[in-house]
Structure formats: C-alpha cells, structure tokens
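R.M. (postdoc): so does anyone remember the format we settled on? I'll just put the structure tokens first.
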C-alpha cells in the first residue's frame, strides 16, 4: 500500500485534505494524525474490522485496548453506560487536553476496540488537526500511538513514516507535537479515581478537581513485580530503544564522572555509545555520541524531546545508552515512568 503523506498547516487547515482523510476513515482504513501528546494511528472506533487493522499495522497484542478520540461531549454519550459526576468535572477542567478517562462502555463500542474489556478509554485531544478530523469524519476515532508496538512513540510525522510507511493509508503532518509523552489515563469507574498512566496532567492537578486520587501501584515498579497494571498496555516493555539502556542516578557531578568512566570502557571495547545529557552537562562528557534532552529546568522541553532522543540513538545504531535521570515538579513522574520503562528499570545509584 502507498502511504499518502500530507502536510497540514495547523493555523489554516486545508478542508480538502480533511475531506480526503475523513473518507479514508469512513471506508474503514487508517490515517495517522498529530495530537498535542504524540501522533495517533486512527481508525473508526465503532468498526471492529477497522480496529483490527490497527493491531496488525502496529504489531500490537490484541488484549491492549485502544483510546477512543472524540471532539465534543455529545459524541461520548452513545459510547458509555454513564458519565459519572467526577468524569464530568475532569472533562470540564481538562478537555480538550492530555487526559484519557476510563468509562464503562455501551454495547455500541465493539470489544475489538476495547481489547475485550467492558470499559472504554476516551480522550478529547487538544490539537486543531485531530479535532477537525474527528468533526469532519463524524466518527469517534480509535487511536493508539502511531508507532510499531514496543518502539518509542512518534512525536513527528517522520517518526510515523519510519514505522508505518506502506502499512497505512495516510499520514497528516502537522509538525512536531507539543507535549511529547502520552496522555494521563485516569479510571473513574470506582469511587476513588485511579491514575493508570502518568502524564502531563498530574495527581495534584486531578485532586484539585475531584479530591483524592490514587496511583496504580503496578506502574511504579518493574513489570515482573507480580502486580498486574490496570491499563493492559503498561505491562509491556514499552517505549524502548534498541540499545541496552541504563540510567545513572545521584549527585549530578558524580553521575557525569560515572557515565564518562563507563562510556570510556565501552568505547575502548569497540562499542558505539550514546549518552543522554542535558544542556547543563553536555559539555562535560568526553566519549560517545552525546545528545541533550534540553534544559533541566524546562520539564516540557525534556518531555517533548524524550522519544525523539531515543529514536535518534536507534537510527545511529548505538549499542549502549547511558543516561542521566530527570526529576521535575509537574511532569517528573511521567518523564521518569517513560525513561524507566525504556531502560527496563535499569538504574544505577551513583554515590
Ligand atoms: O496521548 C495519548 O493517549 C495517545 C494519543 C494518540 O492520544 N494515545 C496513546 O494510545 O498513548 P496507546 O494505545 O499507545 O496507549 C493506550 C493505553 C494503553 O496502555 C492501554 O492499555 C490503555 O491506554 N487503555 C486503553 N483502554 C483502556 C481501558 N479500557 N482500561 C484500561 N486501560 C486502557
Ligand atoms: Mg503507545
């Protein structure tokens, strides 16, 4: 299949391109599109066969449910059994935006979209191209991140083409995304809402709207710890670069010396080494290929660059990645969650 790549100016969206993309979706085929978090691989959420194509194109395990994207609240009603009061408040506070809410599904949503679950994940993305595509097509759009399963999520149309060229009908190129890591997922089907995946909207922000919120404990540690995460996708080794990736945690100066020492040894043994640095530290590394994630004080820059940096090391075919850790106020938990998963939870404390 030839994949059509179309540039879309987010400030002046071409109606003909949206019509072309919508017709593809209505026919049951796939279109990748930008959202504010990462690029999504879209298909008609109410068409089981269309959802199946998503799993095939990504090589995604069939028990891993898809997020359904909508453009307004009216579109949700037919998809869910009820809209709990806390969900209404969260939607009002954060939609359109980087928050996915889990509801009990209605009969209308096929099990092929929800991975066999009786719940459905719904999100109203805050991106003009995504919203326009949903509006023009008039259908709720199931969309996982538009990467091959297991690879880092795509933050540019180029990343989508790397993974899915020839496997899907169309890619809408709306430029680089703003946030760079996937939406926060919150389950409101129980009394106390639970975060199933951390993201830009953090626990404190949710608590300001609905009171107590808990975090699924299974997502804080390695997936072999025995507790099963409530978001099926969180159990897979995920977001991972091809190289062996280890993070080094501790006082920054000591981390830099340790990484230099380990990198020197690998380079001496003939390996290609990648180093995840920051603007403040990048000049201090002496071996390997050094890429900065950005200024340590700008969390949003770090999150926007995270997957791009991991993909860059893939394309440079490094054997080892050595990285600093990143902590932050708002996005810290989400950033470390993705980095830990990418590193298979390999973190060495440097003292
Ligand atoms: O930011 C995002 O959420 C992006 C953009 C494209 O919107 N989408 C995304 O989708 O990250 P995906 O498929 O890569 O991740 C969806 C996650 C998976 O971990 C999946 O298991 C979980 O959502 N999920 C979906 N439906 C669920 C449900 N009914 N109950 C629990 N978890 C669910
Ligand atoms: Mg994904």
């Amino acid at each position: 299949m030839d994949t059509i790549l179309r540039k879309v100016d987010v400030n002046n969206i071409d109606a003909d391109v949206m019509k072309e993309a919508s017709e593809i979706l209505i026919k049951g085929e796939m279109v990748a599109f930008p959202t504010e978090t990462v690029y999504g691989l879209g298909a008609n959420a109410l068409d089981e066969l269309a959802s199946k194509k998503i799993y095939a194109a990504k090589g995604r395990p069939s028990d891993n449910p898809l997020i359904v994207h909508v453009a307004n609240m009216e579109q949700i009603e037919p998809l869910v059994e009820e809209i709990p009061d806390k969900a209404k408040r969260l939607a009002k506070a954060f939609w359109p935006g980087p928050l996915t809410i889990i509801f009990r599904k209605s009969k209308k949503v096929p099990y092929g979209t929800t991975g066999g679950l009786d719940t459905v994940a719904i999100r109203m993305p805050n991106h003009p191209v995504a919203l326009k595509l949903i509006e023009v097509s008039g259908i709720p759009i199931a969309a996982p991140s538009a990467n091959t399963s297991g690879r880092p999520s795509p933050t540019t149309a180029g990343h989508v083409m790397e993974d899915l060229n020839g496997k899907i009908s169309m890619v809408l190129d709306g430029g680089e995304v703003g946030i760079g890591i996937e939406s926060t997922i919150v389950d409101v089907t129980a009394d106390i809402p639970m975060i199933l995946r951390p993201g830009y909207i953090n626990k404190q922000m949710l608590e300001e709207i609905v009171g107590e919120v808990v975090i699924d404990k299974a997502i804080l540690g390695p997936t072999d710890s025995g507790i099963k995460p409530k978001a099926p996708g969180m159990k897979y080794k995920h977001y991972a670069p091809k190289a062996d990736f280890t993070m080094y945690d501790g006082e920054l100066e000591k981390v830099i010396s340790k990484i230099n020492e380990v990198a020197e040894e690998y380079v001496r043994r003939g390996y290609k080494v990648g180093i995840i640095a920051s603007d403040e530290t990048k000049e201090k590394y002496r071996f390997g290929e050094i890429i900065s994630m950005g200024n340590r004080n700008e969390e949003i820059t770090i999150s926007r660059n995270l997957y791009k940096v991991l993909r860059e090391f893939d394309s440079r075919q490094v054997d080892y990645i050595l990285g600093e850790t990143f902590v932050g106020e708002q996005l810290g938990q989400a950033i470390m969650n993705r980095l830990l998963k990418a590193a298979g939870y390999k973190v060495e404390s440097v003292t």
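R.M.: ...and that's the designed sequence above, right after the tokens. Also worth knowing: The mean pLDDT is 95. The pocket of threonylcarbamoyladenylate (ligand 1) is lined by residues 35, 37-38, 40, 64-67, 100, 102, 114, 117, 119-121, 123, 125, 143-145, 182-183, 185, 196-197, 230-234 (CB under 6 Å).
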